[in-house]
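Components:
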Amino acid sequence: MNVKALCLLCFLPVAAVAQGFAGLGTDADGFAVPRPDPVFDFPADHGPHPAYRIEWWYLTANLTAEDGTEYGLQWTLFRSALEPGEQPGWNSPQIWFAHAAVTTPERHFATERFARGGTGQAGVTADPFHAWIDEWEMRGPDFDTLKLTAQGSEFGYDMALEAQGPLIFQGERGFSVKSAEGQASYYYSQPFYEISGTLHLPEGEVSVTGSAWLDREWSSQPLSDNQSGWDWFSLSFTSGAKMMGFQLRQTDGSAYTAATWISPDGTTQPFPDGAFAAMPLAETEVADRIVPTAWQVRLPERGVDVRVEALNPQAWMDLAIPYWEGPVRIEGSHDGHGYLEMTGYE
Amino acid sequence: MSAANRTIIGALASHWRRNPLQLLTFLAGLALATGLWSGVQAINSEARASYDAAAATLGEGQFDQIVARDGGRIAQSDFIAMRRAGWLVSPLVEGRRDGVRFIGVEPLSTPGGLPDLQLDPDAPLQGFLTRETLFANAETAALLGPDTVPENVAISVAPAVAPGLILGDIGIVQSLLGRKDLDRLLVAPEQPMRRAELSEIAPHLVVQDSLQRSDLGQMTDSFHLNLTAFGLLSFAVGIFIVHGAIGLAFEQRRGTLRTLRSLGVSLRRLTALIAVELFGLALIGASLGIVLGYLVAAALLPDVAATLRGLYGANITGTLSLRADWWLSGLAIALLGTALAMADKLWQVAHMPILASARPRAWSQATARGRRRQLGLSAVFFTTGLGLSLFGEGLLAGFALQGALLVGAALALPALLHVGLSAIERRTKIVTWQWFWADTRQQVPGLSLALMALLLAVSANIGVSTMVSSFRLTFVEFLDQRLASELYVNVANPEQSDQIERVLSRHADDVMPLLSMSSRAAGMPIDLDGIRVTDTYRENWRFLAMGPQAWDEVAAGRALIANEQFARRADLWVDDLVRIEGADPLPIAAIMADYGNPRGQLVISETLFRTMNPDATPRSFGARTSDADTLMRAVRQDTGLPEAAFINQAQIKAFSLDVFERTFTVTAALNILTLSVAGFALLMSLLTLADLRVPQLAPVWTAGLPRKTLARMELLRAMALAVCVFLLALPLGLALAWTLLAIVNVEAFGWRLPMFLFPVDYARLGLLAVIAACLAALWPAISLARLSPHRLLKVFADER
Amino acid sequence: MVLTLTSIAKAYPGADGVIPVLVGVDLSLEPGDTLALTGESGSGKSTLLHIAAGLEMADEGDVIVDGQNLTATDDTARAAIRRGTVGVVFQQFNLIPSLTVLGNITFQARLADKEDRSFTQQLCERLGLKSQLEKYPEALSGGQQQRVALARALAARPKVLLADEPTGNLDESTAAEVLALMLSLVEENDAALMVVTHSEKVAQHMSRHVHLRGGKLI
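Structure:
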């Protein structure tokens, strides 16, 4: 999914972030590297892969309250390894961190957590599924039935998820190429969750229902040195079809794009570089910078030509590594809703 | 600069060429003043930087902390349980190894993030987490022995790490200290909603408010205030010197100024050029002073560092860095002082008629009216002081009281000297000495600034040395009481406790377990100690106040002992009831002095302690023995305890005395320095007066007193004045000491120090003051003895 | 003789080497003598008076005061001789500012241990100072100051009174008054008086008159 996360993984509170993006393109010393034609092993692959440098469990949800108000929700657990493998106690080279956010039409709440592996403060087990950091967790008897909780000082949520369709494999059967040079990751999703639960907001509790999309991705060297940021879209159309598309903006002004079309029954069609296109239509000043918050998104081979517009243009994640992430509405050739993530807008 | 300006400056500067001595005194006065001021500021600034580094590294005073209720350690599982329950806390482990303090933190959760370690950009920061690197400042890093840290661990030099401290990831520090547990948890200021209560997750842990933790900065404030007072005093004296030098230069250049004005140099230009000239000189003097200040600070800093470490456990670095704040403040205050001294004279120049007399005016002679006015002002200050001592509250009032005393006394000095010298004069029958006293009295107005400076310097020195010596006497006596046992054994883990007690009982004459825990009483956190009441306690402990059969009551569990800090803060005294959290109220049987401890402390019997806390095990044992070394060896053999677990009473005492020695070194150095500056002020005043003295002395000489006798009398006069000043300084100094001990100390630390008198020290100070005055008068006296008759006779001839 | 000067020579260092001021001056005074010493400005007349008083040393020659040769003595001894034997009155700054009028008058006499209270009282009466005794010199007028100086110089009953322009700072009538008092007091006490002056009027009142030119008396 979102290439932003790759950059985040490079972040440590103590580390000079200066090496930034370029640092991710370096060769993975000692880390395993994704290979084409992967064979997944479930439920084990829902758990962590410490031999790889970076990994995440990334959930976004479009929610509606009984009064019709729309909300967005995010819950992400990241794993970043200083060295491949796992060791007990403080010796563990695994770093965990997590982001949680709730977007309302007027406000955007976001918070984060950090933890060391090896001590029990954070981790993921595959069976039964349990992903946690501090008191935040996503857990259930299996990957299809999950409870989700997180909170910051101002907001929190308790959600229940129920998968309504199969896992989706992005790129070539789960091998997702990220640049012309061949950087890639293992990438599968569960875009068919029904979600319901309670948002805890300053103004009170809100019961909501909606749909959620969970991305699983792990890799060791997914970025190219000449990539400066990205725009990632997960779109759910009222027809029941879904689409994932991203463009990696390159320093020369061009972009590397990829997309996956997901039919209502879960069958997928990947599209290579160039098939998917996204153009900014309107910009908003957010956190002292200009961010495009309305897009024209096209996938001509599927007849998609839609206007994607932020529910709340101020959905800025003001965290250790800042980025924009929030729910969107879709109009045009298709209607629907989804999530947008943008990074690299300095 | 235009040619005209160069010419004028040249004419002005010729004065300094012809009077190199005046130039020297001006520069030296300013340099001395700036030097002492900036030296003291440098020490303070270095210390503050060290405290800041310590606070930033440890989050001391910044964040709430969670500690074990029993004062012990915290299991790592408690940390995980708290995180999993939504408490944003960060673990911290600390301990000593090979004499160096190690702190392990968890950088991902440390509230506020790690401090900016000021590392080189290329330094291996990743090493923090990958357990390859520890961080220390250069000084501490240099102290490390080859075996302190394993080979695969690098020490990275980080200037921002507090002195005497090695900072590292919690993992590596735990393994270095052989620990798997934690000492405390730092609580992040912002916590998530819907968090469980601490009592539900870990009832054996308590939150300590950040404000309740002792703040090094506050603790050491009074020490630094003393230093600053010294610095300010020296500076005030130095400014007297500068004032004198500038005044003299103006007087002697009246002719030049008159000539320049009559040659058509505008007043504005003249004033501007004089300002340029004097500021130029002031800049040179101040720069010399900053160099001097650096040297003073560098020489004193190791002793100051040792003192602060010994008295307050505050680590400050022993090396000095050139921080902008202190040298800029030195420069600024020197220029300000020059400007002040100059403003008055420039005003006079501006109002001087072009053709005013070129003869130097007689030095301002204080009239009876002037003396009365000063006396009136002095009375105002003393009344203010009295009011402050009766109604004032807080540390500031204490210092204001001291200031009022000092200024009041300084203002009263000329009048008091006048009265005293007149009285002596009336009682003298021998004509030479009648003249001597009369003449001494006549010199007082001209010398009054310098004499005030001497008064301030001597009384401040008496005050501070009384305080320091009283502190030492009290503290050593206190150590004798409180460390009555010859050997103390610290227990690292509770399981060992029984075994150690058995072994000690076998070898020692008497064994006294000490139980300890954190608790609360009278609404404040306290340390609660449980002791076995033995004869050792009964015979050695002395109380500030006690009820009848105090020890019996305590031993029977019917009463408790409170330290002075607790008693003063809670406003309780003997017989008042205290309720310790979770126990029945007990009366206070006695109040004990507890110098140097910032926290409240209550002492109860061992038996009562165990009823309140059945799981408690002693954390240390005191053992009576005639041979501490043998006992220690025997216990080590039987229990395998490391040497670090033992505290030898003799060693602690030796250490404490060493700390005081260092304090005295600093105090003595400041004594000498301030008296030197006061002496220098006197020298300057005498030199300034020297020319004006000639007409006063010439008739005495012609009447038949030889120059040698006159010169000897000049020396005697300076010494006599120093003695008079000293006699006035003595009560003033003692009053200062009293305010320091009974007011400032109580406000700052919560305990009152008894005041002792040290006549020998005062005599030594008096002698120093007399020597300083004598040295100051030596040069003018020698000049007088060598003054040519021709110069003396010129007085009588009419120039006009 | 109470004062004998023999072959007195004195030179001062100047810009172009040594400048001779006195070159072989001989002079003597007997009790009761009054001598006017006149000369151009810078002729060395004050220097001669200083040498006579033992305040300055001659480069060559002998100064014998009341039978004691000042040339062979040190500063301390000269001071002792000066105390008891010589009285000096200058043009100005004769008085010790820290002492009262009475203190000033008795100062030299008490130093010489020759205080005579009735004589002092008599002097003060003659000089009209009785009401001024507790004042400090700064409170007196110029004429009064010179009277006090005169009393101070005479209180120890000196054998020789040396006066350097004693009336130079006074107006004419005050000057005449002070001069008359001086002469009569010298006569009454049988002392010798040498007055350095540039004033012919003053010189006329003296029994002898010598003039200094080119370092010699003529």
